[in-house]
Structure formats: C-alpha cells, structure tokens
Amino acid sequence: MTPAEIRTQLRITRNTLTTSQQSIHAQQALQNLKQLLKVEPSFKRPQKIALFLSQDGELNTLETIEFLWNETKHQVYLPVLETKDEWHMAFVQYTAQSEMQDNQFGIKEPSAAITEHLSGEELDWVFMPLVGFDSNGNRLGMGGGYYDRTFAFKLNSESNTTKLIGWAHSCQQTESLLPCEPWDVPLDGILTETGYSTF
Where are the beta strands (DSSP E) in 1-155? Predict the structure, then answer.
C-alpha cells in the first residue's frame, strides 16, 4: 500500500475505538508515563516536555497534561505553526492560563510572542502525534512534514539529547515496516496504552 492508503486505513482503525476504550487507553498511557518519569534519570530535574492536543481519534493527552501541570515541576509545550520565517514549527509553553487561538487547520495553539517560541532543539522530550508506527521506530504522520522538518537536526546530530517519543494507540502499529524516505526522522521510543519502549 502507498503511505496515503496506509494512513487512511490506520485513521479508520483508531476512530473505531469506543469512547470507553479511548478513556481507558488515555488512563493507561498516563500510568505508563508516570512509570517513565520514575525510572528515567533526566526527569529528576525539570524538563521541557512537548505534547499536543489530541484530535481525530488520537490517544488523548488531556489527563497527562493536567498531571504534568498539577503534580510535577516539568514545563509543558505545544506546537505552533505561525513562527519565525526560518522555522517550520515552534513550541510555546502551555499552562492552564494560556490564551488559545486556532491555526490554519483549526487546531488550538497557545498564543505567545515570537520571542517566547522555542525550537525543537531546545526541548528535552517530545511526545509526538502520529498516524502509524512500525517496529523499527519509523513514524507515519499526517503528511505535512512539520515534525520531520522541525527535527531534521536529529538525522545529523549525535550530540543532541532531545527525545522523540510517539504517543499513540497500540493498534496504530503496522504489521510490516513502513516505507520511509531519507528525510524521515525516526522515533526514539513509543508510548501506548500497553507500555513504553525504545527503538
């Protein structure tokens, strides 16, 4: 199948999950994140953690964001598309007091001065949306290339410590390896309702 066909099939698959299944998966994912926070040494100090606002059947992030706000000292960031001309996407700190605005896709983003925008390289952990992933850590996104272009530095830098973690339902894993291009940025790990693993 072509990437477009795989994308269509996987979006249908995750959208067949019931409201109850979605809720249970979100709670299980949060428990898996809590376990990661306990065992990963870098979380012993405040981290800059990027997430996203879920839509279209994506594994819900709301409970996780609220947990990070209320129970930890980590900072939460969301992606924003309107940013510096030389950047493809930026990240803005997200709090309960953030003023929100719609981007060109109708997705809510925190509103902030460009001077407050961070590049992908300035983040510690990025929990990324995706349509599909495989056992090698290849990620299939929505096709816009925003994340691949934003984190292209990962392809040529062994010194950067930014971790890219897929955040998805386990049913979004493909049985066979996904087709990938040289510019596709692989994941460092995946977190689903069934657990967390690295590639």
Answer: 48-50, 75-80, 90-93, 100-102, 108-110, 125-128, 132-133, 139-140
